[in-house]
Amino acid sequence: xxxIESPYYLILLLLIPLGFALYPLLKSRSERVWSxxxxxxxxxxxxxxxxxxxxxxxxxxxxxxxxxxxxLANPQYGLKKQKVKSQNAEIxxxxxxxxxxxxxxxxxxxxxxxxxxxxxxxKKFQNSKLGLINFAGNAYLQSPVTTDIASINLLTSMSxxxxxxxxxxxxxxxxxxxxxxxxxxxGQHKLLIIITDGEDHEGNAIEEAKKAFNNGxxxxxxxxxxxxxxxxxxxxxxxxxxxxxKDGNIIYTKPNLKLLSDIANASGGLLxxxxxxxxxxxxxxxKIKSVLKxxxxxxxxxxxxxxxxxxxxxxxxxxxxxIYFHEKEKLNI
Length: 333
Fold this sequence. Notes:
This protein has 2 domains: 107 residues, no CATH class; 209 residues, Rossmann fold, CATH 3.40.50. A 6-stranded mixed sheet has the order 5-4-3-6-7-12, with helices on both faces. It has a 3-stranded antiparallel sheet with strand order 1-2-13. By secondary structure, the protein is of the alpha/beta class. Helix 3 packs antiparallel against helix 10, helix 4 runs antiparallel to helix 5 and helix 7 packs parallel to helix 8.
């Protein structure tokens, strides 16, 4: 219940015993100076009043110094309970960079369209705390939650399937990593935006979404790709080829809308349309507001009360008394 805000000022208290240690030396030196003028004791008696004045003045001077140092250190006592509205929201964007995101049913391809949207999003929410996760067969934290929007945009522009060694699409890995990447601080409201074609190859995404919900995370899913789908391109010797099944048929990738809808519902989130223009940004903003209202509106925190005024008053009082006795001493000489 008691603490010192700036304890390093208390080091100055070491000057007090140092002053006591030096006092006999200064007194001896003073007497030697007086002895050159004659009998030092008789001269000192004629110019000084009683030892009582000297002791009182010394104690007042030392007391003023001690109290002033304590005031500088700012003693604090007790806990003052306050309540403030909790309005902090953290947003992590999980971007699918699997090979299927290179499908060209959306021009120039799904991944480039997703990057463009993220750039637009950061401009709309430039005062928010944002983080970035890339995922394919595994999930990778590219940036923890930060206010450095320029870094988020730079890392997004660098996102590419060639950066990951494990291909596939693991939505569960992305959700699990987001749970570990959000701040553990109370009062932080968490929103996860997943941009993907939704082709989950792990099968645990719904369970992870429920765990995320229990951790206070709301998931917004943004499928990307057309209902007709598109082949998955890849390069061999600078030639564009397309993935095929074991029978030699070209594989078409389509967004898994049902899975993404189930993930959003399991976490109290939404399934959004990335190509709905300004509407999607308004929907996200409204969801953030609803999350803030849904969570505890007030958050209590503790703060110590400062009591530096008391030692500061005592230091000033000591100085005034020192001046008073000094003037009284001069009148008695």
